Amino acid sequence: LLFTDVIGTHPFCTDIEWLIWGGVTTGFADGTFKPAAGLSRQALAAFLYRHAGSPDGLDPTCTSAPFPDVGFSHAFCGEITWAADEGLLGAYADGGFHPGATVTRQSFAVVLYRAAGSPDGPDPSCTTAPFTDVPAGHAFCGEISWAADAGVTGGYADGGFHPAALMSRQAFAALLHRSDNLAHGIPT
Predict the structure, then answer these.
(1) Residue 15 and residue 137: Cα distance in Å, rounded?
(2) Cα-based distances in Å from 154 to 11, 39, 50, 138, 151
(3) How does residue 1 score in pLDDT terms, banded at 50, 70 and 90?
(4) Element (H, E) at 139
(5) Predicted TM-score (pTM) of this structure
């Protein structure tokens, strides 16, 4: 039993288990993972930081605020600073990080693309729609197309990617696991 809400038959059990083995998450204090809950930007920063091996130690700290809404005493200040310094996550137009905001699927595709080293350049384009709801002119078509071509995502059964939909914690586990496999040459 991984978490009280993720048993062995859970469709994302293997991916969530992989997060545990990799030291990416220990779940919530109540023994749950909350797989269907939305993934917050602060949690994403912390998970990515841990996935990278906690380069600044297990409990990174800050001496200054990286964003107006992330003070140096914020619980994830160190992880958020690291993610921003790595170019994985940045500010909104208002200059804030919005740590409690839920990550969208299109935003996570961008993060995975950047984490992979931006293989098609910093502003990838695409000429063919990778999904029915991601036309060639979509702002993140290049990143989403890369994720589909790399086997990181297959989208939904309806042929769509649902780019503006919120990223669940279980979907995050699956996509990060596939992306990690891709980085290590393991077929997805």
Answers:
(1) 32
(2) 15, 20, 26, 18, 7
(3) low
(4) none
(5) 0.94
